[in-house]
Amino acid sequence: MTDLELFEEMVRLTRRGEAFALATVIAHNGSSPRKSGAKMLVRGDGTVLGSVGGGRVELESVQAALAALGDGEHRTHNFALTEEQGFACGGGMTVYIEPQGRRPHLVMFGAGHVGRAVAALAHTCGFRVVVVDERPDCSTHALLPGADDIVCAPVGEAFRRLALDRESFVVIATPGHLRDFDAVRGCLATEAGFVGLLGSRRKRETLLALLEKEGFDEEQRNRVVTPVGLDIGAQTPEEIAVSIVGQLIRLRKKP
C-alpha cells in the first residue's frame, strides 16, 4: 500500500462524512518495525488501511483510534518494543492518533434563495450538506455547488433516502407551509438532533397548534426550533443564512 492510496481513502471517507482516525509513527529508535512517517488509517468499523508495525503495537493503536473516534480527542502512545509487545528486537516507537473525517451533517429542505445560501455557507463552515427539493429546475449542482448530495424528491419520499441521527441538523425552508409541516412531521419521526423551521412567530403558533391537535406531545413539539436562526435582524437570504449557520455552529461547539 502506498501513501497515495491511503490519502485517497481519507478523501473518500471525508467526502462521505464518515469518521476515521489516522495513526502516524512520529518517533522511533532502535530496531523498530516501522519508521517515523509510517501511517495507518482506522475506519469507524475497526478495519484498517496501512500499518504501524503489527503485533500489540498495531492492536493497541487500533483500540486507541476507536477510542479517539468516540471522544474526539487526539492521543500519543509510546511503545517499548519488548517481547510483551510481540517484538524481540528492542527499540521503541511513538504513535500519534488523530480522529478525522466526520463532518456535521446538515439536511436542508428547500432549494430556494435561502436554502441555496444556507447550503453554500454551511459547506464552507465544514458541514456535509444534503439538499432536498422536489423541483428539478432547483435541484441542480449548478445552483447548489455547496451540496454534497441532492435529493430531488417529495418530502415524504425523501425521508426514505435520508439517514438522520442525534448528530444531524435539519433546516426546513420549502416553498410552502404544507411541505414545511410535512418535513417537520417526518423529522419528529427520526432522532434528528436539531430541527429548525424558517418562518414567522405566527407560523410557529400555527404549527405547534396543529402538532398538538395531531397528538404530538410537548416534548416532541419542543424539538422544533422556529423561527430558526439567531436574532440578528437578518433580511436578505445571505443574512438569514448567516443567522442559521451561526446558530448551528454555536450548537456544534457547545460543550
What does this structure look like?
It contains eight helices and eleven strands. The strands form two sheets. It has a six-stranded parallel β-sheet with strand order 8-7-6-9-10-11, sandwiched between helices. It starts with a helix and ends with a helix. It is 36% helix and 22% strand. A hairpin with a 4-residue loop joins strand 2 (39-43) and strand 3 (48-50). It is α/β, with parallel strands linked by helices. Helix 3 (113-124) packs across helix 8 (237-253).
Please tell me the overall pLDDT: 90
**What class do helices, strands and sheet pairing give?**
alpha/beta
Estimate the global geometry from the Cα principal axes. elongated
Strand order of the largest sheet: 8-7-6-9-10-11
Q: Quote the beta fraction.
A: 15-25%
Low-confidence stretches: none
Number of helices: 8
Overall strand count: 11
Give the % helix.
25-40%
Radius of gyration: 23 Å
- Give the biggest beta sheet: 6 strands, parallel
Order of helices and strands: HEEEHEEEHEEHEHEHHEH
Q: In whole angstroms, how far apart are the ends?
A: 39 Å
